[in-house]
DNA sequence: GATGAATGAGCGTTCATTCAT
DNA sequence: CATGAATGAACGCTCATTCAT
């Protein structure tokens, strides 16, 4: 999978331009003609590389979920020698990744009504792999003494964590603004840390507070 | 509220049919023709009552946000003689309301790209009135001794609470399924209670645990 | 015809409102709904008085052509004891009449494509009665010594005169502007007098020049 | 003119078919669907070449006014070695050009209410360039001794000339009939010559009369 | 690989007109 | 006389997609 040469430069350019336009204007109002014109290629050429608009979206979703899975794997290794700093750094990367593909959490429900295959891969990947991966990760963090809580609590913690993560990115008042990815990631990270705070073990409390303090001074985004 | 004559039966039927169809199939793939045909009225008649499709959505958003504001007011009065049971009961009502209008949290971002006026009323109402109302409510609950936490914690609590609330409803794998509103509301409520748990004061801990226990046995929804 | 009571006050109000709106915005973009709303009556009521939009236009055309015919008759009597002043005064009245119904010369061709009956009454009246009436009038004016020219010349004079008269009123850059009827009539009159000038007999030249001089000072409209 | 590649054959076919249909049936009752069906192309294809119906009309107006401007330039050169025959020949060409685009003078006022950009280009071109061009031309003809009159007279002559020219073409009883362009142009020309007659200088009177006589025998059109 | 003209079903909307009350 | 909700054919236009070159 990683070995296979990327299909073609044009293929990639289409994917990247689409991502950009989808994020800026919303998938709904970006037509295949817009994408082609933006790239100075013909529509015919676009359809040479993609059978339909759906497939562009599917490819973007593939990249999005692949990235998420990769970060999840990284998190597995990181937790071997756990540190708050490592966790936060990873969290920011994940949020930046989500931000890069923000049109997806924003319009995923809308897309379902016009893209059946996305629906399927979503429930397989997002609600399957990733969701379970996050759950496993949280249990591991508890095993390593970073988090505390019973099984039910940690289960809900994992579930809510994901909801917050994507919910933050999908917030409609944030999403289209040309915010710096940096700012959005920081603020989101802060929210998530406050969310985790009550479950951080006493052993990790001190570095946790330190990190929290170091992130605070950034200017706030508008409230929800 | 009860005094104001409803505009006309047909007006209301259009609004209600639209809500139903939007929830089932997504706003995007429900055309004005579909709505009219569903109601066995002519498109002309539909457009006699609404100047454009946007206005149907705007009316739905008006009803949605009006309901939310009403619940918020109810919450203000409830918190006078606070009880966990009262809070949970209200929370379930809010979630059922959200569920009734679930196409809105689901597709709000998408709608922004084709409905400028919605964008404006959203930022005024959702990100304004409601957001601030929820924050105030949480501070009041702390004043009454139900919640504990410093100002920053309670602030984040309020913000995250809202994100979770709508995030749960908007979860794409849930939204289109013909779930019983009851089940969705229960499960969402449970998630939110677990989210609040660490901040519940010791004085209210016992009734809180009792309520939590009474809700648990319901069969679980699929994980995120 | 003149004895018959006008059909009803509402009938007349519809005719007059339509005239006003047609002149202001063009018949094409004035719908029957607009007219009804403008008058604060229901569409049903409008259609109680008129079978269709065409009929409103036909009634307006009837009034327009009736007025023209009346002025023509007046001209016949006037020419008994001919004077330049009388002619000019009549001409101004005709131009003001044309201006009152200016949407007709403006959009007559357009109307033909959607109003067959207008086509018929137009060719009967405008191209029949009126056209012949004007011709007769010009010959009479020659007989009375006001104009000079052979039969062919006078024939062309009459034809061109009418063309100029309506052409002036229909000038698109003039028509929609809220010009004072007075100004438009004066300017148009001046143009028409210059057009007649070469055919005015030497006997009437002096009063003619006097009248011409007395009209000149008005500020000019924009050139064609 | 000959150098500029035409946009595409289909582009031109749309323009030409539209012109034909507009002339026959009136712009108002010719829909984009009609045009497409007439050409056996899809509506999509029509809209591939034109963004909207307005743009087809604008393109036709562009061609119309370009032609008029060209004839005006030709007139400028012609008047160097002026002759009645040359003038008449040009006049016939102009009238045939006007006849070719007759839907424009016919429905220009109507179009204004649904086509703002046409309104602008009309007042710039028709009421600007062309109007001034005609005025200049008439003054030049006087300088060359073909016409006689003081400044005011020549000014009105120019203005009225234009009004007659387009008024003749726009005559609703003429416009839709499948008249031979030749006949219409001849008759119109004759009218215009009679209009000019009083101002033709004695030096040019003889050739003028000769030309007039040579045109007369054609069968007459119905009177106005 | 690439072009760009062509397709056509379907969209949101309009408006003259009807009709039950 | 008057109301106003209801009709439906038709409009201008969109856009994912196809296909000959």
From TrEMBL, chains A, B, C, D:
Pfam families: TetR (PF13972), TetR_N (PF00440)
Any one Gene Ontology molecular-function term assigned to this protein's record: DNA binding
DNA-binding feature ranges: 31-50
SUPFAM superfamilies for this protein: Homeodomain-like
Keyword annotations from UniProtKB, A to Z: DNA-binding
Database matches in PANTHER family: ACREF/ENVCD OPERON REPRESSOR-RELATED (PTHR43479), TRANSCRIPTIONAL REGULATORY PROTEIN (PTHR43479:SF12)
Protein name: TetR/AcrR family transcriptional regulator
Organism of this sequence: Aquitalea aquatica
């Amino acid at each position: 999978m990683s070995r296979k040469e990327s299909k073609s430069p044009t293929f990639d350019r289409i994917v990247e331009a689409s991502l950009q336009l989808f994020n800026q204007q919303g998938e709904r109002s970006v037509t295949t003609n817009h994408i082609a014109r933006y790239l100075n290629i013909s529509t015919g050429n676009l359809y040479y590389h993609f059978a339909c608009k759906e497939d562009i979206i599917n490819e973007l979703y593939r990249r999005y979920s692949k990235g998420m899975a990769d970060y999840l794997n990284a998190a597995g290794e990181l937790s071997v020698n756990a540190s708050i700093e490592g966790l936060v750094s990873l969290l920011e990367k994940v949020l930046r990744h989500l931000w890069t593909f923000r049109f997806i959490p924003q319009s995923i429900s809308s897309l379902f009504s016009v893209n059946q295959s996305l629906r399927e891969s979503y429930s397989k990947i997002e609600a399957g792999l990733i969701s379970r991966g996050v759950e496993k990760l949280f249990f591991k963090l508890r095993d390593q003494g970073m988090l505390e809580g019973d099984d039910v609590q940690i289960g809900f913690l994992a579930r809510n964590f994901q909801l917050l993560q994507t919910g933050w990115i999908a917030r409609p008042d944030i999403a289209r603004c040309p915010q710096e990815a940096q700012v959005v990631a920081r603020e989101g990270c802060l929210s998530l840390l406050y969310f985790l705070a009550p479950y951080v073990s006493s052993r990790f409390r001190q570095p946790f507070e330190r990190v929290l303090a170091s992130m605070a001074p950034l200017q706030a985004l508008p409230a929800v």
